[in-house]
Amino acid sequence: MKDHRTRTAYIDVEQGEGAAIPRKRKRLSREERAAEARQAIFAAASKVVGQHGYADASITRITEAAGIAQGTFYLYFDSRQALFDELLPHVGQDMLRLIHDRVTGAMDIYDVEERGFRAFFQYLKENPGFFRILNEAEIAAPVAHSKHFKVLTDRYVESLERARNAGQVKRFDRDELETLAYVFMAARSYLYLRYVKGKSTARSLPEKVIQTYMKLVRDGLK
What is the pTM of this model? Predict the structure, then answer.
């Protein structure tokens, strides 16, 4: 018997009063098809770079993971490097969306920081290849690395500045906030290396480490 899954892969089902009625999927526009193809390439590149690193992330490996022809790749990116120059900022947006969702509704800067800190490590737990994409980008994709850290730093400084204007950060001037942002971001990286990366038993940051970090944040920002 033939597997009907392939035949119906592009069909939605509309429920009626009787049996389910198959309904053809809406035809995508050229722009929508292009967006889907680019997203498939980014997803495949994230997986391949996260597993093999930039040096061994060939176009062949990426297109095979994406399920597309190599010729299709060149419709969207001029070269492998052109893809790498966009990869980290693209993947980084997924992380930032998760963090934004988790910090929404936070009571103050300390609540924001703890929620964001936990969300960052939750993202790494669910996407273990991200850390390799991030770290190797400094050499393999410096354009992407610079873009990513500019976005991160700008958002961090904006959050700290709002807290400062609200009287929650009293010990630091406005021109010191960028330094604070880099200190907090660096702490995430080194704590990941010490307590999470390469651990076979768990990929979660120990609760004691989180509480120690937050003690430093609370005492330091007051």
Answer: 0.82
